[in-house]
């Protein structure tokens, strides 16, 4: 089943807060920003903070009808007097955000439906990013489509959503990024241990690498960030 909003435009944004400002940044999103995003036609996705967060990061994604709608929504948001008041009040003792990173994303054809709902007990989310050698992204996508996603489910992981980068961005032809959900960090470790020991995974990995002439990821090409949802995240 395709992701909720399949065919729409996604944006993944990562904010690094100034020292001592992460709580104030979350308060601004909780009390003002999320509602203003919705007012201007954006759909709030998931909001998360890394479990290990020395860089004071807030990670979130938004949905739009398309890229033109995204640009129009942000223009209206930035011009909104309510946003200007909220920003000024929150920054009376200095700016909250030191750095903003943004990636435009598209769901893969095998991404499951991403239901924006909060579950009890609250889950832990894992943001994983794979970088492939040149021309091997289709091979990696085929392995996930045909085998990996099913094996993740088999071993107790929840496939949340899978994306590739929208064309024209650095790394768009070699990057897969996705979200998994786990009952806990300990459950995640146990699931991946069982996954890696599964003879079916060994068979699939070896066959896919033989067909491609080598590994489907570059050296140090798999990145994982364990995250917890914020108390205002629609996805938890």
Fill in the keyword field for this structure:
8 strands; Alpha-Beta Plaits; 2 domains; 236 residues; alpha+beta
- Helical content, roughly? 25-40%
* Global geometry: globular
Stretches where pLDDT falls below 50 for ≥5 residues?
1-6
Series of H and E elements:
EHEEHHEEHEEHHE
Overall mean pLDDT stands at 97
Number of domains: 2
Strand tally is 8
Cα(first) to Cα(last) distance is: 20 Å
Beta-strand proportion: 25-35%
State the CATH topology of the largest domain: Alpha-Beta Plaits
Q: If strands are numbered along the chain, what order do they take across the biggest sheet?
A: 1-3-2-8-5-7-6-4
- Rg over alpha carbons: 19 Å
**Derived structural class:** alpha+beta
CATH architecture level-2 label of the largest domain:
2-Layer Sandwich
Number of helices, counting only DSSP H or I runs of 4 residues or more: 6
Characterize the biggest β-sheet.
8 strands, antiparallel, barrel
CATH class of the largest domain: Alpha Beta
Describe the fold and architecture.
The chain has 236 residues and is an alpha+beta fold. The protein folds into two domains: 9-106, Alpha-Beta Plaits, CATH 3.30.70; 124-229, Alpha-Beta Plaits. The chain contains six helices and eight strands. It has an eight-stranded antiparallel beta barrel, surrounded by four helices. Helix 4 packs antiparallel against helix 6. The radius of gyration is 19 Å and the shape is globular.
